[in-house]
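2024-03-11 09:14:02 INFO queue: dequeued item 33 kDa chaperonin, len=290
2024-03-11 09:14:02 INFO validating residues
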Amino acid sequence: MNQADTLQRFLFDGVPVRGALVRLDGAWQQVVSRHNYPAAVRHVLGQMIAASSLLAANLKFDGTLIMQLHGKGALRLAVAECTNERTVRATARFDAAITDAPLAELLGEGGTFVVTLEPKEGEPWQGIVALEGDSIAQMLENYMQRSEQLDTRLILACNDDTAAGLLLQRLPDGHGDVEGWPHVVALADTLQQDELLTLGADDILYRLYHQETVRVFDPEQVSFACNCSEERVGEMLKLLGGQEAADVVLEQGSIEIGCEYCGQRYVFDEDDVNRLFNFDVMAAVREARH
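2024-03-11 09:14:37 INFO prediction written
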């Protein structure tokens, strides 16, 4: 399998540590090509989309992991999602005047980090913590320690072509040397950003851990995909209500809604709105206006 757009999970035999490597080329470029994101926003989203893929690698349910940064500075919102089917998407909201700056400055004070696990069946679970750390990796490491009591090491990197990451997690109960965690992390910390962005998973694992016994699982393909649809947008309009939807159509001629993730545009005219609410809501609103 091509090393591009792959997730590679692995497990140490001699240390209770699991890990994963991800490299996103085409999938990341699909995100970048749909929006004219400034460099500062691309840098954040690239790391988040790699991180979401890594954290979703160990999920045991069918559904989606949603990672959100809520800020009060120039970067208002950054979202990255990964499903159990290894599809990813991302989006952001930000001030037009945003410029390159440290992450803490971009987000401002009082922001939050939110991780949501949204299963296809059952209730979603959400964890919310204050922003702690100077990078996406540090924030997530702190989040995992606080919410899961799980020692985690994340190394993330991105440029315009590639988003990549390495995840290590110490297992609460495992076999092997329980004191081996610092050694595994110390080796990981020698990995350079350009190596993470250019080398394949096999080369990285050999470069770091050729003296360790590492069990490598089959690589998994990762791709960009958006789950927006006309039906989903229609359900959102139903929540808006028939009168409100009809008012917009009467004033603007139609309702046009764009997906923040993929840029797909959905247009609802008078016939669409009547069909959505199963009666001639347009005529009813016109009559009420007179």
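2024-03-11 09:14:37 INFO annotate: The chain has a mean pLDDT of 91.
2024-03-11 09:14:38 INFO item closed
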